[in-house]
Write a structure and sequence with these properties.
Shape: globular
Strand order of the largest sheet: 2-1-3-4-5
Distance between the termini: 24 Å
Largest sheet: 5 strands, parallel
Number of helices: 10
CATH superfamily of the largest domain: NAD(P)-binding Rossmann-like Domain
Order of helices and strands: EHEHHEHEHEHEHEHHEEEH
CATH architecture of the largest domain: 3-Layer(aba) Sandwich
Number of strands: 10
Number of domains: 2
Structural class: alpha/beta
């Protein structure tokens, strides 16, 4: 059985995922794509071995079993929706109720963060504290609503500057394109209002660095990852697209590794 995959958006992540599907992944096929710039999307598809139709976002659920990126109409059709911008999910949790009513599922891949398996497992026995520290090159944070609201200038930094400290929910609102990893961590563990995060604009790093510290009944652990930024979008790590591809493969694989 082959599962059809539709992709909402052909940016730094969506285009890589689409190309991997076009090259061939056992049990999966690219069924449709959607993008704000339809003409650009059609031009990208023209270069594919098996071009997928470009359809409106609202119709992605009609064309596929799995939709990559949040699409409410797809959940209404009982589809599996793989969410990348999971920060938006924190303030739209009614979508989980919609999925439950309609038999759909919301799947959040690990993205650019490691250790979510351990956090999910530890949560079964109780977690008391989850803290995350993110360091990014300044250009990876430019344009964040929080920085603009508080007039925080990071254009000519010569040393690391902490630009935010607060909860994962607050971080997701203030840095929607930058810290979806914090939202994923919160959903895996103790929630967005108890998970804390610091964000640093750091001119001394060339990678997106995330360090997570967890205190739980079953274990105490700390994890750190240094992600290479995407060439197309420095706000996103290259690992994010690869995580989506790996998660899609899990859905059709006869052998699955990891929680």
């Amino acid at each position: 059985m082959t599962l059809g995959v539709a992709i909402g958006g052909l940016g730094a992540i969506g285009k890589i995922v689409a190309r991997h599907l076009d090259r061939g992944i056992d049990g999966l096929a690219l069924a449709a794509v959607s993008a704000r710039d339809g003409a650009r999307a059609k031009a990208i598809m023209a270069d594919f071995t098996q071009p997928a139709p470009v359809v409106p976002l609202a119709r992605l659920g009609e064309a596929a079993d799995i939709v990559v990126e949040l699409a409410e109409p797809a959940l209404g059709r009982g589809r599996l929706v793989m969410v990348l911008s999971c920060g938006a999910l924190l303030d739209n949790f009614d979508l989980v109720d919609l999925a439950r009513r309609q038999g759909g599922r919301i799947f959040v891949p690990s993205g650019a963060l490691l250790g979510l398996d351990a956090v999910v497992a530890a949560a079964e026995d109780g977690i008391s504290n989850v803290r995350m520290v993110t360091r990014k090159p300044p250009q990876g944070l430019v344009g964040a609503p929080y920085l603009e609201e508080y007039a925080i200038d990071i254009s000519e930094l010569s040393e690391p500057k902490r630009v935010f400290a607060g909860t994962a929910r607050e971080a997701a609102r203030g840095f929607p394109a930058n810290v979806n990893v914090a939202a994923a961590l919160a959903l895996a563990g103790i929630g967005p209002d108890r998970t804390t995060i610091e964000i640093w604009a750091d001119p001394t790093v060339t990678r997106n660095v995330h360090r997570v510290e967890v205190e739980a009944e079953a274990a105490r652990f700390s994890l750190e990852i240094e992600n290479v930024p995407s060439a197309e979008n420095p706000r996103t790590g290259r690992l994010t697209a690869l995580s989506v591809i790996a998660a899609l493969k899990k859905l059709a694989a006869p052998l699955v590794i990891g929680t």
